[in-house]
């Protein structure tokens, strides 16, 4: 397997994933050769990220009328490992890799039914003040929830 810059030690990295969503590859998501279109993993990453944010209670806060902040994806990448085909069931894992003052790094991993990793990714999410359009610090409560999730995964 090729070296992926954001993964130091593969086995440990894989073992740290516990939060996931499940998808089944739809016909509309494959190309004429029956392969998953290379843009679709980003949609899967988005879904997993939103489910993670819901589990943390962030989506509920950001969706309230009068909420002053939102999450913005500042970068996102995907590394393709194995081919994925129509009708395959995948688990899309997401974990918090690093927590900054105004951003977090998330890592993603997709696994097929044989428990083979088929693609992986990473991305940075920035907490933005909607009015100013500038980064906003995570609240103490948000950092605590993220830290607790990281601890429960590594414990």
Describe this structure in words.
There is one protein chain. This protein has 155 residues and is α+β, with helices and mostly antiparallel strands. It has a single domain, classed as Thiol Ester Dehydrase, Chain A, CATH 3.10.129. The protein has 4 helices and 6 strands, in the order αβααβββββα. It starts with 9 loop residues before the first helix and ends with a helix.
Biggest sheet record: 6 strands, antiparallel
CATH homologous superfamily - what is it? Hotdog Thioesterase
CATH top-level class: Alpha Beta
What is the total number of structural domains? 1
**Count, helices:** 4
On the 0 to 100 scale, the average pLDDT is 95
Helix content: 25-40%
How big is the Rg?
Answer: 16 Å
Distance between the termini: 28 Å
User: How would you spell out the order of helices and strands?
Assistant: HEHHEEEEEH
Taking pLDDT < 50 over at least 5 consecutive residues as the criterion, the unreliable ranges are none
What percentage of amino acids are in beta strands? 25-35%
Count the E strands.
6
CATH architecture: Roll
- The shape is globular
The secondary structure category is: alpha+beta
CATH topology, what is it called? Answer: Thiol Ester Dehydrase, Chain A
Question: Which features does this protein show?
Answer:
globular; alpha+beta; Thiol Ester Dehydrase, Chain A; 155 residues; 4 helices; six-stranded antiparallel sheet
């Amino acid at each position: 397997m090729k070296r992926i810059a954001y993964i130091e030690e593969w086995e440990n990295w894989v073992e740290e994933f516990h939060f996931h969503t499940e998808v089944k590859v739809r016909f509309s998501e494959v190309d004429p050769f029956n392969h998953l279109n290379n843009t679709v993993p980003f949609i899967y990453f988005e879904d997993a990220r939103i489910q993670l944010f819901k589990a943390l209670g962030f989506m509920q806060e950001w969706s309230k009328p009068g909420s002053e902040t939102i999450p913005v994806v500042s970068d996102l990448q995907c590394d393709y490992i194995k081919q994925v085909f129509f009708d395959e069931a995948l688990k899309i894992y997401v974990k918090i890799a690093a927590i900054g003052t105004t951003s977090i790094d998330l890592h993603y991993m997709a696994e097929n039914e044989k428990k083979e990793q088929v693609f992986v990714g990473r991305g940075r999410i920035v907490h933005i003040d909607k009015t100013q359009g500038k980064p906003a610090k995570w609240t103490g409560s948000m950092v605590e929830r993220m830290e607790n999730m990281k601890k429960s995964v590594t414990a």
